[in-house]
Amino acid sequence: MTDLIKAENLTRYYDQHCAVNDVSFTLSKGEVLGFLGPNGAGKTTTMQLLCGNLAPNAGSIHINGIDLLKNPNAAKVNLGYLPDTPPLYKDLTVNEFLTYCGQLHRVPKAQIAKALEVAKERCALSDVADRLIGNLSKGYQQRVGIAQAILHNPAVIILDEPTVGLDPLQIREIRLLIRELGQDHGIILSTHILSEVQESCTHVQIIQAGRLILKTSINDLNKQLQATGLNIVTRSPMDVDKLSLIDGVTAIEVLSPCHVRVQHAEIGRANPPEAIAAMIVSCGWGLQEITPIQNSLEDEYIRLTQSQTPL
Q1: Average pLDDT over residues 204-226
Q2: Residue 152 domain-assigned?
Q3: Number of structural domains, the chain?
Q4: What is the pTM of this model?
Q5: DSSP string of the chain, one letter each residue
Q6: Tens of pLDDT along 10-26?
Q7: Domain check: are 142 and 238 in the same one?
């Protein structure tokens, strides 16, 4: 199966500053890729490269098998793009604007009416089709922006922070729309909202200082975030040296003689939490509390981005 996006060794400089440094990844049909990174990390530049708005200093981009640099017009037919500020003409009605966008996308004249109906239905715009865009709520304006991006039925849809400024109900509706679109397209979703990635995406990647520092599926990420630590409180001081000898214990943070945090890894059939509890009981330290420490995507994001040295 052909990758809908295949980016290889992308590098982009602004004068002496390397904004994107040797970035490679792929996107397939049915994947919704959450693209995360701090401000200034190279996220927007990468998306501009993928859309053909910027040229890389090095590397290659193929969109649905077509070389974007060598054959940009043919490659861009397969792209739909919603920037962080939707490019809307607010003095036009929804129908007028989407008709204009259909012409820009070179949808054949005989097919524009059908393309409009499909896009409006998918984005729930049929009831506001004759209203001025400027009179619509922010949520509906975002829907119009997404509709123009999918009007020509592109293989790849790139959405740059599509839920910024929306209320909770509007955010839920846009997330649902993104999941539905992800069934038939490949989608890249840029966002600062970490919960949005876990709820809407199948894959996630994090960029920091121009480099990709994480590429994984949401399922694998959730496995990594499962509890691998314990918060332990005892009545009497613990012998940390003894605890450290238990198979699977990787680190111990001593908060007080009777309060520690233990990091552990699963090793074969070993069960570190069970072994730790058994040792505390057998040594008579008086177990008062043993609770798992659950990591979050926010914890992992902060850990990864703060551990990287800027270029």
Answers
A1: 88
A2: yes
A3: 2
A4: 0.79
A5: ---SEEEEEEEEEETTEEEEEEEEEEE-TT-EEEEE--TTSSHHHHHHHHHTSS--SEEEEEETTEETTTSHHHHHTTEEEE-SS----TTSBHHHHHHHHHHHTT--HHHHHHHHHHHHHHTT-GGGTTSBGGGS-HHHHHHHHHHHHHTT--SEEEEESTTTT--HHHHHHHHHHHHHHTTTSEEEEE-S-HHHHHHH-SEEEEEETTEEEEEEEHHHHHHHHS--EEEEEESS---HHHHHTSTTEEEEEEEETTEEEEEE---TT--HHHHHHHHHHHTT--EEEEEEE---HHHHHHHHHHSSPP-
A6: 999 999 999 999 999 99
A7: no
